[in-house]
């Protein structure tokens, strides 16, 4: 409305135009504040990528792993069921895996939503892996990641692991989602 009045009255244009600009700026800033609050409540979820800290949910000895690389063709990062290479940041002293070791792990929980065929979504509160191999210094011809290092898997595991051929992890899991 202020713009319509400004076009009719050429003298008062600068005054009315500046008022309309100030009013629209005030509205935009208040909308930006509201949108910012909404975005902070939703928390944008992303792929598991290089530098992501992951919780280890098996009894291999590792507690926390930092992702070094995703072994998937997708350049964005890893999702549920993908294999990653990680460095152990925290470990218990009596475990098979020690601090500083490079390990392979399968992502069993991811904070990024994964859409299922039936239209539902599965997403978790944290990012977690199961250790399936320890990187050796010698070059191996073919490395298979079907056998987990630990003998127990804690917490829920999605049934999408069946499609990724990780049946042993499903067998060891306490709860399948």
From TrEMBL:
Pfam families named in the record: Ribosomal_L14
For whether the record's keyword set contains NAD, the answer is no
This protein's record includes keyword Protein transport:
no
Which keywords describe this protein according to UniProt?
Ribonucleoprotein, Ribosomal protein
Q: Which GO terms describe its cellular component?
A: ribosome
SMART domains the UniProt entry points to: Ribosomal_L14
Q: What PROSITE patterns does the annotation carry?
A: RIBOSOMAL_L14 (PS00049)
Q: Which InterPro entries match?
A: Ribosomal_uL14, Ribosomal_uL14_bac-type, Ribosomal_uL14_CS, Ribosomal_uL14_sf
Domain of life assignment: Eukaryota
The family note in this entry says: Belongs to the universal ribosomal protein uL14 family.
Q: Which PANTHER family match?
A: 50S/60S RIBOSOMAL PROTEIN L14/L23, LARGE RIBOSOMAL SUBUNIT PROTEIN UL14MY
Q: What is this protein called?
A: 50S ribosomal protein HLL, mitochondrial isoform X1
Q: Which gene encodes it?
A: LOC104756088
